[in-house]
Structures are given as C-alpha cells and as structure tokens.
Amino acid sequence: MEDITLQELKALVAANSRAIGGLEELQIQDREQLLLSRQQWQEELAASRREYDHKQASLERQLAASRQQWQEELAASRQQWQEELTASRREHDRIAASLERSIDYARQLGQLGNRIGELNEAAFYPSLERVLSEDFHMEVIAPHVRARRQGEELELDVLAYANEDVNTVFDVEIKTELDQAALDQILDQLRRFPRFFREHRGKRLYGVLAAVKIPPGLRRRVLRQGLYLATIRDDVFDVVRPEGFEPRAFPN
After folding, report:
1. Residues whose CB is less than 8 angstroms from the CB of residue 124 and which lie 6 or more positions away in sequence, other chains included
2. Helices (DSSP H) in the chain: which residue ranges?
3. For the chain, what is the domain count?
4. d(CA 236, CA 126)
5. Residue 106, class by beta-carbon neighbours within 10 Å (0-12 exposed, 13-18 middle, 19+ buried)?
6. Which residues contact 207 (CB under 8 A, 6 or more apart)?
7. Is residue 59 part of a domain?
C-alpha cells in the first residue's frame, strides 16, 4: 500500500464530509417532501370530509323536507277522509230519518186505510146481512173470521152459513177496487177452505166477491169462475145476477 500524504488525507476527509453532507441534505429534502405530501393528504382528507358533511347535511335536509311534506299530505288526507266520513254519516242519518218517516207515514196510511175500510164496512154491513139472510137464508153471519191449523192461517172478511135444510156456507171477500189479485185470493181461499173449516164439510160452498169499483173485464172473469159478484154503492150491498149465471159450488 502506498503511503498517503497528509494533503491527500485531508482531501479524502473533505470528500467524505461533502458526501455525508449531501446525504444529509437529501434526507432533509426527503423529510420535507414527506411532510409536504402528508400535509397535502391531510388537506385533501379534510376537504373530502367537508364535502361529505355538506352532502350528508343536504341529504338530511331533503329527507326532513320530504318527511314534512309527507306528514302534511297525510294530515290533509286524514282530514279530508274524516270530513267525507262525517258528511257520509250525516247523509246516512238523513236518509235513515227520511226512510223512517216514510215507513211511519206508510204505517199511518195503512192504519188510516184499515180504519176507512172498517168505517165503510160498518156502513154497508147491515145491507150485506140483509142480503145474506133474506136472499140466501144464512143463519150465522160473522165478519173477520180467522182460522189456524198446523202453523198456517186462513182469514175471511165474512163467513156466513146455515145448517139443516139450507146446508150452505159462503166466503165473502170485500175490496175497495177489484183486481186480479183479489180474484186469485178468493179462489185460493175456497180451495183451502175445507182444511181449515172441517165443521162445515158437506155444505155447499160458494164465494162472493164484493167491491166498490169493478172494472168491466174483471166483472166477466169473476162471473165465469162461478163466483157471486156484489157491488157496494151508497152503503148498499147488491148482488149482481146476470141472466144465465150459474153459481159454482166449490168442493167441500
């Protein structure tokens, strides 16, 4: 190994010192760059957090506004529904009250009609009794007869009968205005009569249909069925006896 002079040794030490200094300078620069990068990252992170907080706050405001709007719409719908329900109840109560008044009115009319019928009947009843007793020799004349058997009922306006030699029974139906339903009714009564009035079995059974108003068409129909037809006019009960009429004795 060659001997190093003092001058060379000093130069070598100086070179090493410069190298070390350069390395230290580089380390300082790297440290500063690292600190700068960290600071930049922290600033970007803070900015991201601020943006996130801003968006979250905006979203919460939108949700709060939507919730408020929904609650207001729900309250308005509930209020409207309650008002409609109240109006519907008032209308229902009004209709129910009106219907009740109509039913009561109809009931009163029915009672009035029954009362008028009773008064009219009371007026011509003496004439009816006279015709049945004098012209047809009836011994018993009973108004408003009702019979029940095995849960069924048969009601007659007038039942008249005589025993022994006469041996006859009459079913008399009285109407204000004659119609087909009245004709069907008395025919059904005469058909059912033997079942409800067994005590009159064997008697000749006749039907009498009396009315204040008698349409011409029904007049002919009643007579063709072999029923006696009677008019009621001015409180007089009068049996129609057209030429050639043959009364029908119904099965009994």
Report:
1. 232, 235, 236, 237
2. 6-130, 180-196, 216-224
3. 1
4. 9
5. exposed
6. 170, 171, 172, 173, 186, 187, 189, 190, 225, 226, 227, 228, 248, 250
7. no
Q: Dihedral, CA atoms, 230, 166, 250, 140, nearest 10 degrees?
A: 60
- Please determine, for residue 214, whether its predicted confidence score (pLDDT) is greater than 80: yes
Q: What gap in Å lies between CA 35 and CA 53, rounded to an integer? A: 26
Reading the block at residue 233, the tokens are 């006019």
Residue 211 Cα distances to 116, 127, 175, 241, angstroms: 14, 14, 5, 15
Can you tell me which residue has the tokens 């049996």?
A: 239
Per the listing, tokens 């968006």 go with 55
Residues 6-35 pLDDT 10s? 666 666 666 666 656 655 565 666 666 766
Mean pLDDT value across residues 86-91: 78
pTM higher than the cut 0.85:
no
Q: Is residue 126 in a domain?
A: no
**Distance of alpha carbon 137 from alpha carbon 128, whole angstroms:** 12
pLDDT digits (tens, 9 = 90+) for 93-129: 777 776 666 565 445 434 434 433 443 555 678 888 9
State the CB neighbour count (10 A cutoff) for residue 125. 17
d(C-alpha 225, C-alpha 222), whole Å: 5
Alpha helices in 150-179 (DSSP H): none
CATH of the domain at 236: 3.40.1350.10
